[in-house]
Design a protein that fits this description.
CATH architecture of the largest domain: Up-down Bundle
Largest sheet: 7 strands, mixed
Number of domains: 2
CATH class of the largest domain: Mainly Alpha
Bound molecules: nicotinamide-adenine-dinucleotide, glycine
Strand content: 15-25%
Number of helices: 13
Helix content: 40-55%
CATH topology of the largest domain: Dehydroquinate synthase-like, alpha domain
Oligomer: single chain
């Protein structure tokens, strides 16, 4: 097992990565679980694969696990499900000093984290991420949210977990397409700030997605270390360091919005294609070489992720995609900061991008 600390003054916590962590969850959480009853939020797919493992460990340590099993999928990050979760936690008499366990992917982690942030003005929670995406990104850093009618992740809070247990065993039951979507967030760390890790991803990315345990472990360790560094530097995305984690997300969110935030394009797939577009747009602006942009596209495509907007079958023009960007929560006094590239490992924030220019670029991309 490897351990990375997210250093945040009085709110520092550990991210432990390894095998068997869910089977040992009671001991791993130790005194954080201060009562007999332990509330756990999960979804139906995760429950089918991992509920018994967690329950056994807790029961063997004298706890009484109580599970709230929600429907799987992005629709679960909603006001109505949040209300259900809060009512359940209140009925379970969860107090501020207690910890709620979030067993699942980014949907369960974001929702449970937000419920914990507002329950009695804030109670503790522990992330038990079961997707590659959640292990390398969403479980670390304390961004919690639900979606609203106006868009994705528009209602939320910064609320750090007390502990993250990323059990690599859970990746064995994860569908391969979900592994690919999570891998987009892995290679992102190389593209935005670590050229040596990008080199490693070029060589080993397909192994991560094919289920190679050593490759997965290295990918998760490196990603967690990068995210922990960035979050410690800029917890609330105020100085610019954390904003670089949005590489590919502005283009990606527009594509997700156009496809209706559904299985047609998973979040990670949108980010993958978004990073390719950010690289090509950076090349068009003369910031990065065409060669580096092509290398990024080849590494992402080589991992089986989408690299051409024209293959999505979108029935729209570049202006429609750019219009989705107007609703981006990063909009700041009429400008939308874009994460662009000066090279592989050299992301920067460009606050001077004209959406008309982006729309023209997307028109070209849509034509293939
Ligand atoms: P998800 O939570 O929907 O999980 C994907 C699918 O895999 C679901 O069907 C789930 O039931 C299933 N699943 C999860 N673990 C499994 C396992 N071990 N075995 C079998 N099936 C399993 O999606 P995700 O990709 O993990 O997360 C996406 C969400 O994360 C989005 O809502 C996105 O906005 C959010 N996100 C948040 C942050 C953040 O910093 N908070 C960062 C990135 C993404
Ligand atoms: N996933 C982006 C962030 O945590 O800031």
């Amino acid at each position: 097992m490897s351990v990375t600390r997210v250093e945040l003054a009085g709110r520092s916590y550990e991210v432990r990565v390894g095998g068997g962590l869910l089977a040992d969850v009671a001991a791993q959480c130790g005194p954080l679980l201060r009562k007999k009853v332990v509330p756990i939020i999960t979804d139906a797919n995760v429950a089918a694969a991992w509920q018994d493992t967690v329950a056994q460990s807790l029961r063997a340590a004298g706890h009484e696990p109580r599970f709230l099993v929600l429907g799987a999928g992005e629709a679960t990050k909603s006001w109505s499900v949040l209300e259900l979760v809060i009512d359940w936690l209140l009925a379970e008499e969860v107090e501020r000093g207690d910890h709620v366990l979030a067993l699942g992917g980014g949907v369960i982690g974001d929702l449970t984290g937000f419920a914990a942030a507002v329950l009695k003005r804030g109670c503790g929670f522990i992330q038990l991420p079961t997707t590659l995406l959640a292990q390398v990104d969403s479980s670390v850093g304390g961004k919690t949210a639900i979606n609203s009618r106006a868009g994705k992740n528009l209602v939320g809070a910064f609320h750090q977990p007390s502990l993250v247990l990323a059990d690599l065993d859970t990746l064995t039951t994860l569908p391969q397409r979900e592994l690919g979507a999570g891998y987009a967030e892995v290679i992102k760390y190389g593209i935005l700030g670590d050229p040596a890790f990008f080199d490693w991803c070029e060589a080993h990315g397909p192994q991560v997605i094919a289920g190679d345990r050593a490759a997965q472990e290295y990918a998760v360790d490196m990603s967690v270390a990068a995210k922990a560094r960035i979050v410690a530097e800029d917890e609330r995305e105020t100085t610019g360091a954390r904003a670089l984690l949005n590489l590919g997300h502005t283009f990606g969110h527009a594509l997700e919005a156009q496809t209706g935030f559904c299985d047609r394009l998973l979040h990670g797939e949108g980010v993958a294609l978004g990073m390719v577009l950010a690289a090509r747009y950076s090349a068009r602006k003369g910031y990065v070489s065409q060669g580096d942009a092509a290398r990024i596209g080849a590494a992402i495509g080589g991992a089986g992720l989408p690299v051409e907007v024209s293959t999505l079958g979108l029935n729209c023009d570049g202006r429609a995609l750019a219009d989705h960007m107007l609703h981006d929560k990063k909009m700041d006094a009429g400008t939308l900061p874009f994460v662009l590239l000066k090279g592989i490992g050299q992301a920067f924030l460009d606050k001077q991008v004209a959406l008309d220019d982006v729309a023209a670029f997307l028109d070209e991309q849509l034509q293939g």
